[in-house]
Design goal:
alpha/beta; 2 domains; 7-stranded parallel β-sheet; 15 helices; single chain; elongated; Rossmann fold; 44% helix
């Protein structure tokens, strides 16, 4: 029997949850699963899915009250004769579950991608009210599950924890690409490059990193190489960060790239990944850096502290502490042996725990057990 799955997500821009949808849609065995993807809004991921041969469409929802798109969603779900609707992110779940009920779609799975720390009472209320209608709630980490359980009071058996997965092989270090990018950025061989990959918004904490880097860059130690920082990503803080970087005493050492498709190349060029998130769910960028044999300096927040193991694959710091982040950067900069050890252990951990094939297999088992 072929199980028909519709993955419904809020939008299809290239970010963490959207990439998980892409991996499932393109990697689930086609002889066992027929997968389609629907986004309330479109984005680059829709084009990539279609190029990969996946049926993907966007409803073009223009706002929270754009109910004109509701009939189209119902038509898609009826026409698809799906066995499972798998919703990702809050707004997709908000419209997806009532739509599944309206068309008599038999099974609903919802993935919670983040332990939301902002004050969102309407989301919390929905989580409590709607959680019982899902066959299973997938959480990307134990931290996300524990956070969700506190909101809903649901029993542990309602949840399945599936860590996000990455294509480990694609993050193997590329010496040629490293040399090309470092030459392009006017870096010397003995300069040390710190990297950030992620959305430039409050959650990801790039503003904390920029301040911490300014502190670390002042180091005059003879054993500390010259530090540089590159930020890859886009978002609402980009203009603020660009302005701050230009006014910084370390202005000549900070580069803001904007969005990049070449994350493997960037990680090959870097020596340390920095992830100063204020809250997280999992953090694909940290797992990717580990796959690239990089040590990670990260916030000790739920989800992220399940990816990065303090003292083994990186250094965990108190969220928001620029002093701790600066100290961790200096410590790693001054100790190449420590960087090497953390990076090698990180790659082993990534291979064992975060391989994309495990991620897909766990979802396949879940879908089959539900149907």
């Amino acid at each position: 029997m072929t199980i028909r799955v519709c993955q419904l997500i809020t939008e299809l821009r290239p970010a963490g949850a959207e990439r998980c949808v892409y991996e499932l849609a393109t990697r689930l065995p086609p002889e066992r699963f027929a997968v389609e993807v629907v986004g309330l809004r479109g984005g680059e991921m829709m084009d990539r899915l279609q190029m990969a041969g996946v049926t993907a469409r966007a409803l073009g929802v223009r706002g929270k009250l754009d109910i004109a798109k509701w009939p189209e969603l119902l038509r898609i779900l009826r026409r698809g004769r799906f066995d499972i609707l798998h919703t990702h992110l809050f707004h997709a779940d908000l419209v997806g579950r009532p739509a599944a009920i309206a068309v008599g779609l038999p099974h609903v799975v919802h993935t919670v991608h983040v332990a939301e720390r902002r004050f969102r009472p309407w989301q919390f209320a929905w989580a409590r009210a709607a959680a019982y209608s899902a066959d299973r709630i997938v959480c990307v980490s134990r931290g996300v599950r524990d956070h969700h359980r506190r909101l809903t009071g649901l029993p542990p058996g309602k949840y399945t924890i599936i860590h996000n997965g990455i294509d480990i092989a694609s993050y193997a270090r590329d010496a040629t690409r490293r040399a090309q990018l470092r030459q392009e950025w006017s870096l010397r061989d003995d300069d040390l490059l710190c990297a950030f990959v992620g959305r430039l918004n409050e959650q990801k904490g790039a503003d904390v990193l920029l301040e911490a880097f300014e502190q670390a860059a002042k180091t005059k130690s003879k054993t500390c190489p010259k530090l540089h920082l590159v930020l890859a990503g886009d978002g609402p803080q980009r203009h603020f960060l660009t302005d701050s970087a230009q006014k910084s005493p370390a202005a000549g050492r900070v580069r803001i790239l904007g969005f990049t498709n070449d994350v493997p190349g960037l990680l090959s060029a870097a020596d340390i990944l920095c992830q100063p998130s204020r809250w997280e769910g999992f953090c694909l960028a940290a797992a990717e850096a580990m796959a690239a044999s990089l040590p990670v300096v990260a916030s000790n927040v739920p989800g992220l502290n399940e990816v990065v193991t303090d003292g083994q694959t990186g250094i965990l710091c108190k969220s928001g502490s620029t002093a701790q982040f600066a100290a961790a950067l200096i410590r790693l900069a001054e100790d190449p042996t420590l960087r090497l050890r953390l990076g090698q252990t990180g790659r082993r951990h990534a291979m064992e725990r975060f391989d994309v094939d495990q991620f897909v297999a766990r979802h396949a088992e879940l879908y089959e057990s539900i149907c």
